[in-house]
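RECORD TYPE: inverse folding
INPUT: structure tokens
STRUCTURE:
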């Protein structure tokens, strides 16, 4: 089969790397890919937002399956474009992807179908928001409705902080129309966990639970990032909670979307808090998590292509998904300054010096003559697999010492608290 992977990060590198192991796959293309993806796929110079060009390419080369990594082409309607042309693709339609785009839509959807979520009020003015804050107290979480480039969620600890943000949103219109409505949401305590499922619109298979780290620095300090590392399995998430997530969140969401006439095919990735009262959904994503994919796919024993084709065809029933008992830890190596301003074009040394079974997924790299150089904020995701999290952790950090680029920084505590979490989670 011929496969096309859309995207250019470590997640897409992991997808292409895993698909390469399938005996059914003959050719893999990536649009646009990066220097690491080029080791396992032919990269074509089409950007992820150019959905018409991507569809033209898939049509011309008679691609048997296109797999979409990032959110942008999904919200632009790449799946609808492919469906219109009868081209096979793995991912949700634009309507289903709307769950990700609007906080108010997704909150109302969860309420309607009894999917456990944080308590919240939908507000259209400062006065309504103030009344909601009086009711819910501090801290509370304020979320503007539409896509706000990751800046639309704040946790406010006091009336002063809340009112300053509300002024920005409703009077200064900092987020434009994205913020005509705003959620005032109950502040949850507990552990966040990633528990994705692959679905064909009716049936689903759960991926193994994984834990990612969003803050830039050790001990969950510093600014938020796209993700600085991850581990799997999250053994502290016991079977009882996992079953609750599968039945109350995953199954209910899939059935609800089908009932709404927008069956969801692809990766259903709810953002979850495990609280004392059980799991609560705080948002939906419709794509593979990054960096979760970089620890999950190395643990997957089944053929990824089989599973993705079954999802795209609506034939997931009976598909077997096997995970290895091993643990995986992935650590992101970032450019100096990330998530703030950073420079690119720094030569990367030591990529070939890691132990043979350590995988270096490229997040943002490009070739410059004979060298591979940095090309973004998150540059590499280094993954090690071993029989325990502790061993995988030791192995990954031992190998990171062999890799270097100017300004490189990374967290030293990925996976360090993997065993300590249960007390907080309960
Ligand atoms: P979101 O864009 O909804 O994923 O929110 C971004 C981050 O804000 C999440 O990853 C959480 O760490 C935090 N957050 C969102 N909602 C809540 C909540 N109700 N309670 C506590 N923290 C939250």
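DESIGNED SEQUENCE:
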């Amino acid at each position: 089969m011929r496969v096309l992977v859309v995207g250019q990060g470590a997640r897409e590198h992991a997808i292409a790397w895993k698909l390469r192991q399938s005996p059914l796959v003959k050719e893999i293309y990536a649009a646009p890919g990066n220097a690491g993806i080029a080791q396992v796929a032919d990269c074509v110079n089409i950007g992820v937002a150019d959905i018409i060009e991507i569809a033209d390419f898939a049509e011309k080369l008679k691609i048997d399956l296109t797999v979409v990594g990032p959110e942008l082409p999904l919200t632009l309607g790449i799946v609808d474009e492919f469906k219109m042309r009868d081209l096979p693709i793995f991912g949700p339609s634009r309507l289903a992807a709307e769950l990700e785009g609007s906080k108010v839509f997704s909150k109302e959807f969860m309420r309607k179908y009894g999917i456990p979520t944080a308590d919240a009020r939908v507000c259209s003015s400062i006065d309504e928001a103030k009344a909601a804050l009086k009711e819910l107290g501090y801290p509370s979480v304020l979320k503007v409705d539409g896509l706000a480039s990751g800046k639309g969620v704040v946790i406010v600890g006091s009336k002063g902080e809340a009112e300053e943000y509300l002024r920005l949103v409703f009077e200064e219109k900092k987020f434009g129309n994205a913020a005509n409505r705003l959620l005032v949401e109950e502040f949850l305590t507990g552990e966040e966990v990633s528990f994705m499922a692959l679905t064909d619109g009716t049936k689903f298979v759960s991926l193994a639970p994984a834990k990612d780290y969003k803050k830039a620095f050790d001990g969950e300090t510093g600014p938020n990032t796209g993700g600085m590392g991850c581990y799997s399995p999250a053994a502290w998430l016991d079977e009882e909670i996992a079953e609750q997530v599968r039945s109350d969140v995953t199954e209910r969401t899939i059935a609800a979307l089908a009932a709404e006439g927008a069956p969801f095919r692809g990766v259903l990735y709810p953002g979850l808090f495990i609280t004392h009262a059980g799991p609560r959904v705080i948002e939906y994503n419709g794509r593979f998590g990054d960096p979760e994919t970089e620890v999950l796919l190395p643990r997957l024993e089944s053929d990824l292509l089989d599973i993705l084709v079954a999802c795209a065809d609506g034939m997931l029933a009976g598909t077997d998904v096997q995970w290895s008992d091993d643990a995986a830890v992935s650590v992101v190596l970032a450019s100096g300054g990330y998530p703030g301003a950073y420079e690119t074009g720094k030569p990367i040394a030591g990529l070939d010096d890691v132990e043979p079974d350590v995988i270096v997924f490229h997040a943002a790299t490009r070739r410059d003559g004979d060298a591979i150089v940095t090309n973004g904020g998150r540059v590499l995701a280094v993954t090690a697999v071993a029989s325990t999290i502790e061993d995988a952790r030791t192995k990954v950090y031992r190998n990171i010492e062999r890799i270097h680029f100017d300004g490189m920084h990374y967290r030293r505590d990925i996976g360090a608290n993997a065993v300590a979490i249960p007390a907080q989670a309960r």
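NOTES: Residues 118, 141, 153, 185-188, 192, 271, 282-283 surround adenosine monophosphate (CB under 6 Å).
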